[in-house]
């Protein structure tokens, strides 16, 4: 009977050791990170808002380009006067006489085409400003896309981390549950004290509480993940596990590439250009404006020989002085460009810091993984040896509980090291602008 009990105990111990590995097996149809990205990019409202802003900028660019094209205007009206227009004169004899010059009621209409020929750069600079603004909006859209992918990645990793936390917590409950039964059997046989039994039961209750908390954390993580994908928060989640990548590229190379690729920098650069072009367009309003216009007009008037007329006009307008309005507006716009330039310079410094920080995180987590791999194996062996010694009266129950706690801690440390490494790599890619 003693041999049978020992066999069961050994089987239980090996099951506890290998249970986490079995639970980590990827279920059929598990969702990959790429699939999660693809779904989130289709349903995220904040990204759609940025896309709509880009569409608006595109329409503004088209409007700016349309300013170079001829404009057609149509005017029509019906006029009724209280008295018919007339001129007053005198005859040869000196008698006063009045002659009507237009009808008391009349219809008129006109169609005119106007083509700007020269605007001192007002239109061309306006087009350049709109084009730069549109490019900036596209860069912002790309930046928002990468931000969303990183957020989804973090939610994805949170689910994996929480899943692993549940597995470790349940493994601890199973291991302590088995130990508690062993201690209870030994207590009934007089081989263990009641203090050992109580201490084991208290530790088991604590493990069960941690398992409940771990399960709640997993449910919250899944709900957060589902929100990013536009799904019901309670929808079941099955994710493909992620493996950390070995990232050996030198820091200097990553930093140099990030300054060339970061969409935030490109967006600010285009915004600065757009504002400068706007300032130039504003100043051009006080320069000569040359336009060609022509069209057809009709004025109903029985006293007029030709009621309809074709016309063409070459006109110049030059606002020599406007009180300084255009100059001050242009200067204000240039100040906005200077402010954006300061933001640009500050962003360069922040990007350098981000790349360095996440590069160091990658190095740190890689070292932690190597340490925790050894620690997990040692903790498993330590627990096995300690329990065997306890059953043979060579160790205390406290030693077993401490060994179990060390095993749980080493498993959590390993999971955290792995998923911290995964996140560090993803964040480094985002910092470089390549996620």
Detailed description of the structure:
The structure is a single chain. This protein folds into two domains: 2-69 and 121-286 and 324-432, Outer membrane efflux proteins (OEP); 71-118 and 287-321, Single Sheet (Outer membrane efflux proteins (OEP)), CATH 2.20.200.10. It is 67% helix and 13% strand. It has nine helices and six strands. The strands form two sheets. A four-stranded antiparallel β-sheet has the order 1-4-5-6, with no helix packed on it. The model is unreliable at 1-28 (pLDDT under 50). The radius of gyration is 40 Å and the shape is elongated. β2 (86-90) and β3 (96-100) form a beta hairpin.
- List the uncertain runs: 1-28
Please state the CA-atom Rg, rounded to the nearest Å.
40 Å
Mean pLDDT: 89
Strand content: 5-15%
Gross morphology: elongated
Give a short summary of the structure.
By secondary structure, this protein is an alpha+beta fold. 67% of the residues lie in helices and 13% in strands. The protein has 9 helices and 6 strands, in the order H-H-H-E-E-E-E-H-H-H-H-E-E-H-H.
Characteristics:
single chain, alpha+beta, Outer membrane efflux proteins (OEP), elongated
Task: Compile the SSE list and pairings.
Blueprint: H1 2-23, H2 33-43, H3 45-66, E1 71-80, E2 86-90, E3 96-100, E4 105-118, H4 122-188, H5 194-228, H6 251-261, H7 263-284, E5 289-299, E6 308-317, H8 325-391, H9 397-432
Antiparallel strand pairs: 1-4, 2-3, 4-5, 5-6
Helix pairs in contact: 1-4, 2-4, 3-4, 4-5, 4-7, 4-9, 6-8, 7-8, 8-9
């Amino acid at each position: 009977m003693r041999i049978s009990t020992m066999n069961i105990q050994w089987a239980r111990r090996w099951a506890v050791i290998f249970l986490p590995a079995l639970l980590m097996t990827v279920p059929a149809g598990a969702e990959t990170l790429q699939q999660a990205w693809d779904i989130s990019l289709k349903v995220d409202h904040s990204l759609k808002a940025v896309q709509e802003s880009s569409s608006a900028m595109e329409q503004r660019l088209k409007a700016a380009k349309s300013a170079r094209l001829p404009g057609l205007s149509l005017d029509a009206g019906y006029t009724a006067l209280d008295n018919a227009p007339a001129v007053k004169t005198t005859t040869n004899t000196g008698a006063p006489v009045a002659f009507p010059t237009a009808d008391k009621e009349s219809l008129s209409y006109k169609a005119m085409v106007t083509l700007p020929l020269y605007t001192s750069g007002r239109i061309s600079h306006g087009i350049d400003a709109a084009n730069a603004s549109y490019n900036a909006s596209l860069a912002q859209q790309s930046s928002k896309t990468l931000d969303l992918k990183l957020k989804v990645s973090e939610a994805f990793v949170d689910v994996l981390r929480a899943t692993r936390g549940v597995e470790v917590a349940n493994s601890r409950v199973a291991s302590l549950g088995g130990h508690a039964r062993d201690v209870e059997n030994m207590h009934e046989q007089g081989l263990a004290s009641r203090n050992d039994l109580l201490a084991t039961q208290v530790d088991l209750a604590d493990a069960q509480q941690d398992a409940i908390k771990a399960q709640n954390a997993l449910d919250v993580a899944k709900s957060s993940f589902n929100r990013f994908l536009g799904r019901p928060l309670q929808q079941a989640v099955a994710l493909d596990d992620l493996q950390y990548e070995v990232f050996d590229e030198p820091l200097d190379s990553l930093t140099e590439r990030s300054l060339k690729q970061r969409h935030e920098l490109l967006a600010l650069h285009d915004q600065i250009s757009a504002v400068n072009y706007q300032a130039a367009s504003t100043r051009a309003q006080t320069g000569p404006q040359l336009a060609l216009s022509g069209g057809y007009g009709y004025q109903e008037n029985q006293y007029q020989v030709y009621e309809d007329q074709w016309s063409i006009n070459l006109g110049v307008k030059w606002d020599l002085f406007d009180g300084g309005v255009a100059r001050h507006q242009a200067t204000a716009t240039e100040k906005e460009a200077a402010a954006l330039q300061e933001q640009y310079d500050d962003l360069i410094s922040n990007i350098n810091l981000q790349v360095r920080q996440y590069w160091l995180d990658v190095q740190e987590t890689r070292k932690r993984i190597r340490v925790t791999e050894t620690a997990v194996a040692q903790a498993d062996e330590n627990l096995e040896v300690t329990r065997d010694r306890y059953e043979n009266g060579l160790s205390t129950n406290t030693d077993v509980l401490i060994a179990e706690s060390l095993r749980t801690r080493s498993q959590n440390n390993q999971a955290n090291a792995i998923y911290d490494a995964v996140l560090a790599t993803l964040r480094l890619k985002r910092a470089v602008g390549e996620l």
